[in-house]
Amino acid sequence: MLLAAVLCSTTALAHEVPEEEDEDPPEWTQSLSLEELLRVELSTPSKRLQLAREAPGVASVVTREQMRRFGWTTIDDILFSQPGFFPSHDFERTTVGARGLWEGWNNNHLLLLVDGVPMNDNDLATAFTWDISPLFLVKSVEILRGPASALYGSSAINGVIALNTLSSSHTLEDDERLEINNEARVRAGNLGTVAVDAVAVTRSRHLSAVVGFQHQHTDGFSYLSYDGSERTDATGALQRFLVNNRRDSSYLFVKLEPSGVLRGLSLQYHLQDWNHGTGHGWRHWAPDVDGPMRDRRHIAVASYRSRPGSPLEQEYVFKYQRHEYDSHVRFYPSGAMDGSYPFGVTEVLGTALDELFGRAQLSGSVAEGLSLLGGVEYSATLYGGDSVHYATADLSDESRDPPAPLTPVRLGPVYESILGEPLSNVGAYTQLAWNRLLALPLSLTMGLRYDLKFFHYRDLAQPGTPRRFKSYDQLSPRIALVFTPSPVFSLKFQGGRAFRAPAPGELFGSNTWILKANVEGMRPEQVTTFELNTDWSISPQLSWRGTLFHSRYENLIGFSDGNVVDNLLSQTNVGVESEFLVEVDLGGIGRLSGFGNYTYVHLLEGAGQSGGLTWAPAHQAKVGVSYQRERLSLALQGRYQGDVLRREEDRMNPLYRSLRPERVPAWFRLDANVRYQITSWAAAELEVSNLLDTENYLVRTYDLPFDYRMEGRRILGSLEVNL
């Protein structure tokens, strides 16, 4: 495909290029044509505004209007429409796999940015991509596929997801004092689902403000499933238990942007609060009671960015994050282990982690066509102990017949080894960008970043718990060449290395069954990736892009048996991604637009079955089409995922082999969205996911008797009001 595109470059050169017009960029409220969409600039690949075709790496942008048209309300919805990404599942949550790499519960191989500020969790480095991170506050989403640690540091292994939030860009006239744009939406549907969100974007002479709130609740999709307990019924057959995904969440967002002499300053506050379950149980015993599992994050951000185009552009960021837990984890039901736990086992934990993050960055032009960027970052994670920590059993005694305590057993700090000890991270990075290299339509981008994670901790396994020191460091290079012989055609080559340092929750667990410490044995994850990409606008109505990639993953971290976090495996994947965007103007009867993509991944080296890729699909295909006419829009999206192979060690127990097939069968899902603009200020929408109500499954790793059933048909109706 890439060779064909290169051979067609003469055709691309002959393609008539529209004259550049000096016009303002489209507002986020507008519907863009394909030609306009491809002219939208994004900054994530290089931290400077560029067209996706000219930027290093493989990047895409999704507008607010596209999200509305297809009914995408979560980051997952967007990613699962993109090439390379696919749904994984672990315990109670859906995670994001990428390019043949299954993703576990921590979901920490993507870096999530909000207005350029990293928003991954400070405990497990999780990118919260599911419905607890809503899109009502977002005007556009930039997606960078592949490694990006040369600019962004840890966690940018599979890519970077950048959310650009709403702002008021309107300039007030002399007779105007205040501008207010309000938007509210109510959604309700089956499975006990209700959601309300509202956002107000205002601007006065001296201040622009955005205030938004969302609350949602769902009873979740329930189904009968085996678990890992090997409990049997009266006939001796394995029992099945009801698994549900009941959850609710709330989100508050506030952004203030002064004008005048303070222009460039931004103040943000995020409050994220959610409740969830444990799915099949965190020890694979389906819980008999649903204890509260509540998380809350407070994030405050102060940032300053000088006006783009200044001789010396400056950026300064300060962030404070606090993650609070109120967890009642039901590990074993009453009477578990042949009566060894007559009251079951519940662990109750109330704790919190704090993080401070800072960045200083400078960039500017050092010569014609030559720009330089550099910055430093520092973060510190702090643990000050637990507000409450106890269990209904002695967790230190895992003998076959432990004594049943009459009162709850008080437990020590969950991160006892770092109590009062900060975990520090320092990063320094630089990037050189050279346009028109050797007087050719060739650009070169070179980046290099050094990261150091260091901390003191108490060795709880040794007498006297001596204080020890440990550090991890990583050098992350990147080089990218972009050949652009025409504004409608580019050929890219990129090579880079990314990493992810172990997070606190992967290193220091103690006095708990939730996780176990492995500070001495843990190593950072690494990936080295080479990409070759072609991007071609065949016509103003058709654009195609193809990517070849080779990725070597080392020391991948995950939960092994017994909730121990360890470096589980290394593997090498190669693959191809092909994607197109198309638009057809139907004249007076409307406009038709669509997308399609196909991904193939092959395992070169690593854990597999006869050399085949395991735990992830080798084949994926996705297609979406939308029709718009005046006040009506209709959208359909289909996703196909090929068979998923298991590993040989996942089929060792003869009792389980008959309960699930050797491979997870392929599946196809169809989603639909209908939107009608009732008036200029009101719209109604009907969203149906899994329209055909097909029964599909996602792989459960390891030797267990079940896979995760995907959600059945979900129907949501919504009413939206704009003022």
From TrEMBL:
Record keywords: Cell outer membrane, Membrane, Receptor, Signal, TonB box, Transmembrane, Transmembrane beta strand, Transport
Gene Ontology molecular function: any one: siderophore uptake transmembrane transporter activity
Protein origin, superkingdom: Bacteria
SUPFAM superfamilies on file: Porins (SSF56935)
Protein's UniProt keywords contain Signal: yes
First-listed, main subcellular location of the protein, grouped into a coarse class: membrane
Start and end residues of each TonB-dependent receptor plug domain: 53-160
Biological-process GO terms, alphabetical: siderophore transmembrane transport
Topology with respect to the bilayer: Multi-pass membrane protein
Entry's Gene Ontology cellular component terms: cell outer membrane
Pfam families: Plug, TonB_dep_Rec_b-barrel
Compartment(s) of residence: Cell outer membrane
Domain TonB-dependent receptor-like beta-barrel residues, every copy: 262-691
Similarity section: Belongs to the TonB-dependent receptor family.
The protein's name in its UniProt record: TonB-dependent receptor
